[in-house]
Amino acid sequence: MTLCVLFWSVNFVLGRFVKDDITPMELAFFRWFFVFLMVSPILIIRHEKIIHSLKQNFTILTVLAILGITTFNTLLYYGLTFTTSTNALIINSTVPILVLVLSFFILKQKIKFYQTTGIILSTLGVIFLILKADIANILTLEFNQGDILIIITSLSWALYSVLLKYKPKDLNDFEYFSTTVAIGLIVLLPFYLYQGYSFQQELEVLQNNYPVFLYVSIFASISSYYLWHYGIEKIGASKTAQFTHLMPIFGIILASIFLKESLHSYHLLGASLIAFGIYLSLFYKNTQKYF
User: Fold this and answer.
1) Where does this polypeptide localize (predicted)?
2) Fewer CB within 10 Å, N or C, the chain?
């Protein structure tokens, strides 16, 4: 799971880094287009099984594809054109809180005392980072358009993670992922075509930025999505989501290197609170008290 969130942290920084060379729609569309090409053998070989499952589970597969493939990634890249990668990563670390709340209402999942304590500590670490260790900053705290979009993407991903509980049991992880990629790309296609890009323009974008598209397709998509799904199956959505609190740590370091965003002592202190909160949520099990 640590490797998964590291790949995604790079994706956040990369989305900000290429904002002047690749439009958000281009980055989102070609990311999933190349993933689709990579998983197409699975779609072809297992087409009868996938079509049968799609007929039986069309609604949930479509909802999951829209949340996890279309909405999350596209709005993320649009958000990164207006806000910094550091801001985006910090806001995104609210996902565990959203997952816990949604799991409580949708899955009727009980909340243990130590989980709540860990989430509170991690959240305090995030707030510490946002306020830059100065409570006076709360008076000037503002959310721009990019921040709002990132909040929407966080909610989208949290809901996706919770609803994975209802994904078809007859599809394995690779079949499921391939199916949602195909559906998500189909949903995204009209929005991409609406932009009116020329063939020559897109050819130049692909030629000049192919390493970016390869990274977001292989590491930020195929590898990370598989690891995320594996984590949810093994330890549940709430605990898996706690690992997103590591993203600000990775992201701030990467942003300071590649985007020249400053790294301060409050980043390190906030990261320490986040890390301790993850420890409590995932590994500390001395009490069985529930809320």
Assistant:
1) Cell membrane
2) C
